[in-house]
Design brief:
Elements lengths: L3 H11 L6 H4 L4 H19 L2 H14 L4 H10 L3 H16 L1
Helix pairs in contact: 1-3, 3-4, 4-5, 4-6, 5-6
């Protein structure tokens, strides 16, 4: 994991909570995408709730200014229409705040 995505993924897997948009502003999009997916995976492992982790990934995707298509593909690959809906709900919710 010696690239930006891999470093972000590992940081997300090890994070107790997500950073604010201000704290991650200096990272590249690949790092932020890795972080979002790593953090989402960590949430799933802790809670067993794929919908909750997808919802959080949607929130973080919007908060970090990422292209949602770059992140949502992860949930589409798992053939989970429910997870995609929860991702989009989180993404839209963050945009209202």
């Amino acid at each position: 994991m010696n690239n930006h995505f891999g470093k972000g993924l590992m940081a997300g897997l090890n994070a107790a909570r997500p950073d604010s948009a201000r704290n991650v502003a200096h990272f590249c999009a690949d790092y932020k995408r890795g972080f979002v997916l790593g953090f989402s995976q960590r949430m799933f492992e802790k809670t067993g709730d794929r919908q909750l982790s997808a919802w959080e990934a949607g929130i973080l995707t919007r908060r970090y200014g990422l292209d949602k298509e770059m992140v949502i593909d992860f949930f589409r690959e798992n053939q989970s229409a429910v997870a995609v809906r929860f991702f989009m709900a989180g993404y839209r919710l963050e945009g209202q705040g």
